[in-house]
Design brief:
single chain; alpha/beta; Phosphatase 2c, domain 1; 5-stranded parallel sheet; Response regulator receiver modulated serine phosphatase
């Protein structure tokens, strides 16, 4: 309640203090009385110089300025008000009634003008629309300040979230005898829904994961962190098929309720033999490039996690021989070119002649033009078995 009242107060800008500037004492006093009857707090100045001296302390909401005054005229006061940035509306008053005077006043920043002798109906109409315009301008400025502050807060929160998300990704790569490992994740926004990870459940085993949560930004990032944590915990003591099936059961309710889903490529490598078991849960972006340059598609797959409750995931197997490379990537690479999908053959062909996993990774990231603005999160993981290339 108190917070809502404070927000309303921040956008309400009452217009109450009026300054009448007229060197004709009769006109000045008449104007004051009219304004006081309308409920305003009214002050007066006998000429332009007195008005200028009173502005810093008085800070009126609206000035009613006579154009023709000896010494400092109404247009001079108007010019000072606009140059000083005073938050006030200005209504000019002229006894001449010429269009030239009115146009010049408006050109110099007046909000409106009145002709003398003042007609009550015209006077009230001009004052009402000027006051309303000033009130709305102040309200809009207050709202813009609130929006700017909320934007700054959101940017700060996003920056903190990006740091947290970056810290969830692996720091460095593990030493895997006979293999070289490299990966990178580049969010399309400050934070995203892609993730990758690896772990050594035991000295003979390496577990690898690459996932992509539907969507971008904060919602995808929150689901990403949950999916990553669940799968990581289950991968310590379970082979890929069991780990993914258990993770899917654990995540289904949250994903179905949020209307989202996760694609996963999860694999486990037996380091001494090069045998790789894997589950592809609707991901579809993984292949093996053999030492001779041929490409092997990973056929064993399933649906994304969160789309079909109770779906059973099955495990596929292959062997990485010396010189072979496993590549897994998110659709940020496949869809890097607007209007078309990048073919696996082209992606695999870009690796020809590369000396190891790190060079392969740089080439793949380069295909997506990662130095430019990405339309989707980009994640690439490369596992290369040493040997002839």
């Amino acid at each position: 309640m108190a917070e809502a009242a404070a927000e309303r107060g921040a956008t309400e800008a009452p217009v109450r203090r009026l300054l009448v500037v007229d060197d004709d004492p009769v006109s000045n006093r008449l104007m004051q009385r009219r304004l006081e009857r309308l409920g305003y707090e009214v002050f007066s100045a006998a000429d332009g110089r007195e008005a200028l001296e009173s502005l810093p302390d008085l800070r009126p909401d609206v000035l009613l300025l006579d154009v023709s005054m000896p010494g400092v005229g109404g247009l001079d006061v108007l010019e000072h008000v606009r140059e000083s940035g005073l938050d006030a509306a200005v209504i000019m008053m002229t006894a001449y009634g010429t269009e030239e005077v009115a146009v010049e006043s408006l050109r110099r920043g007046a909000d409106d003008y009145l002709r003398k002798p003042l007609q009550q109906a015209e006077f009230e109409a001009v004052l009402e629309r000027t006051v309303e315009r000033l009130r709305l301008e102040r309200q809009n400025r207050a709202l813009r300040r609130q929006l700017d502050e909320k934007r700054r807060q959101l940017e700060a929160e996003l920056s903190r979230a990006a740091r947290v998300q970056a810290e969830l990704l692996p720091v460095g790569t593990p030493e895997v005898p006979g293999f070289e490992l490299a990966a990178r994740c580049i969010p399309a926004r400050e934070i995203g829904g892609d993730f990758y990870g690896w772990m050594r459940p035991d000295p003979q085993t390496l577990a690898l994961t690459l996932g992509d949560v539907m969507g971008k930004g904060m919602p995808a990032a929150l689901l990403m962190a949950t999916a990553r944590a669940v799968l990581r915990a289950l991968s310590r003591q379970n082979p890929p098929e069991r780990a993914v099936n258990l993770a899917a059961r654990a995540l289904e309710e949250d994903l179905m309720r949020s209307g989202s889903f996760v694609t996963l490529f999860h694999a486990q490598l037996d380091i001494p033999s090069g045998s790789l078991s894997y589950v592809d849960a609707g991901h579809g972006h993984a292949f093996v490039r053999r030492a001779g340059g041929s490409v092997e598609h990973l056929l064993e797959g399933g649906v994304p996690v969160g789309t079909i409750p109770g779906h059973a995931y099955r495990e596929g197997r292959l062997r990485l021989e010396p010189g072979d490379t496993l590549v897994a990537y998110s659709d940020g690479l496949a869809e890097a070119r607007p209007g078309s999908l990048m073919a696996v053959g082209e992606i695999a062909g870009s690796l020809s002649g590369a000396s190891g996993a790190r060079e392969m990774l740089e080439r793949l990231v380069g295909l997506a033009g990662a130095g430019e603005s990405l339309s989707d999160d980009l994640t690439v993981l490369v596992l290369h078995r040493a040997g002839e290339g």
